[in-house]
């Protein structure tokens, strides 16, 4: 949730860091993986978004 709040106010570096930190605690969190992928897609990083989705499904 904190990562989403940072994203909403434009702190993308902080949002990405928080998504990574969250996944260090719970790497199985589908919501976190897909929310991070969505952030990347919204920023025009379609390739990175796909990489993030693939990382989730490769677990």
UniProtKB/TrEMBL annotation:
Q: Which residues form the signal peptide?
A: none
GO terms, molecular function: mRNA binding; single-stranded RNA binding
- What is the superkingdom listed in this entry's lineage? Eukaryota
Task: List the InterPro entries.
Answer: Mbb1-like, TPR-like_helical_dom_sf
Q: Its GO CC terms?
A: chloroplast
Q: Name one GO biological process term.
A: mRNA processing
**What's the protein here called?**
Uncharacterized protein
């Amino acid at each position: 949730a904190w990562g989403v709040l940072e994203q909403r106010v434009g702190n993308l570096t902080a949002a990405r860091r928080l998504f990574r930190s969250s996944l260090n605690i719970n790497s199985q969190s589908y919501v976190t993986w897909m929310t991070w992928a969505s952030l990347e897609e919204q920023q025009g990083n379609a390739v990175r978004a796909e990489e993030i989705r693939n990382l989730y499904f490769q677990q």
